[in-house]
Amino acid sequence: MDLKQRIKEFIDIQYQSPRGILGLFVGEKMVLQHRRETLWTINLLKLKKEERVLEIGCGAGYAMENILAQPNVQFVVGLDISKSILRSARIRNRRAIREGTAKLLLGSVSDIPLDNELFTRVFSIHSIYFWDITPETISEIYRVLKPNGTVTITLCNGKNGETWTGIQNMLEEKLIPLMLQMGFKDIKILKGPNSRKFHTVAVFGEK
Question: Which residues span the membrane (predicted)?
């Protein structure tokens, strides 16, 4: 393996699970890169009274910070597989954590360390690329949602007018069929804003 390939693999690992000082930098870089689709996703949640929200792959906690600023939110949990990135999220949301309206957890979407039917909203932004999309993973999301709760999964499916067939096939042939199998209803793909020439979409479903 040449140096260029090793560097690329190292950077890819940092985006999947940021580590150390460089991981903190990557986390803040992702906040800047993904701000537009993050705010779009929060708007899609249509937050009402006493919402309890779970973010899967919370990163540096920017989305959590914005959600916690809204009056209809009761409690927000951020879940991530990276200890380094959770440090950034903890700093960004330290007041809410101290007041008991926010919590951060180290863990994976395939084994969410939380009780059944806790959340009215579950969402994720740019983390599905790193999931094992299996019945167990989708059932975990379904399990932690309250009846009539919703899931919103935001990702990119193309760039510069070109659709990435691999991502699109994953949505249409794997993710959505598994969501239907688990019992989600009103499933749809919503088109979002272009961000840095990437095409943003969100997969929405209701329990």
Answer: none
